[in-house]
Design goal:
This protein is α/β, with parallel strands linked by helices and about 325 residues long. It contains nine helices and 15 strands. The radius of gyration is 20 Å and the shape is globular. The chain folds into two domains: about 140 residues, NAD(P)-binding Rossmann-like Domain (Rossmann fold, 3-Layer(aba) Sandwich), CATH 3.40.50.720; about 180 residues, Dihydrodipicolinate Reductase, domain 2 (2-Layer Sandwich), CATH 3.30.360. The longest helix has 20 residues. The N and C termini lie far apart (about 45 Å).
Amino acid sequence: MKKIQWGIISTAKIGIEHVIPALQKGQYSEVAAIASRSLQQAGEAAARLGIKKAYGSYSELLDDPSIDAVYNPLPNTMHAEWTVKAMEAGKHVLCEKPLAMTVTEAEEMIRVRDRCGVKAGEAFMVKSNPQWIGTRERVRKGEIGRLRLIQGMFSYHNPDPSNIRNIRELGGGGVLDIGCYPVTMSRYIFEDEPLRVIALLEFDPEMGTDRLGSVIMEFPSGQAQFAVSTQLVPYQRMHLFGTEGHLEVHIPFNAPGDRPCTVAHDGGSILLDEIRIESYPVADQYQLMGDAFSIAILEDTEVPVPLEDALANTRVLSAIFASAAKGEWIEVV
């Protein structure tokens, strides 16, 4: 069986701890090389993970003709630059979320992808998880009646100013790091795009990053509301409210790979003993994402989260920041 030969640019934690091990377990993928701006750091990561090749620059990896696809987990402000360079080197690219810092960057990435004839997508692993695929199907079938409202919460506590998530110049802050999840999943479940948004953001006085935020998105058929924070107790939930029922996704984003995911369903009752719990099989959502992307390359089909979808998400994120700055509703365009 042919396997896609993957190269990893950067030794970022998300890659080392989650994506690389997942690709190594995949049926259709093999991690062949890793690059860092430090050859020593790349070599240490390669030895730890059993990767054959290590490079001391990203460009060296892109020049390797044996590499079919690149995973890009660089800081947010470097996503567009190195995804474009990888595509221009003839590599397929899976880029970490958020794809781009601006709508203009995302649009340019689409133009480069089309010109170079490669596959490219955004690494929203949640869309490959059976709990979300199953939950959308339940909404489609009318299990909760007509979907009218989505509510979400995603938070963690990290006040470390040296952490990349708290460095404004590298694209840190709550909305870009974790707010992108309730945005993309609200779009995924409504199967539509929001018309306008309004947001309230609180910024850390020292780091300058958004540390607490509340957002409302108006969709053609309902509303989505969510809050995110980088300085609160770790928590995450997504609630889907319909005219005849309610679904609660218990671990919507950082789904564990060692136990089933659960989604609660009530048909209008507020009594806890009348709530039904649906379990979804144990799954590594990163492995599922990696295999799906590799299959798309091998079979020349659509990638799990194409750049067009990432562009739509970028439009919403940009509108959120514009709304917070102006203190008013902003149309998503």
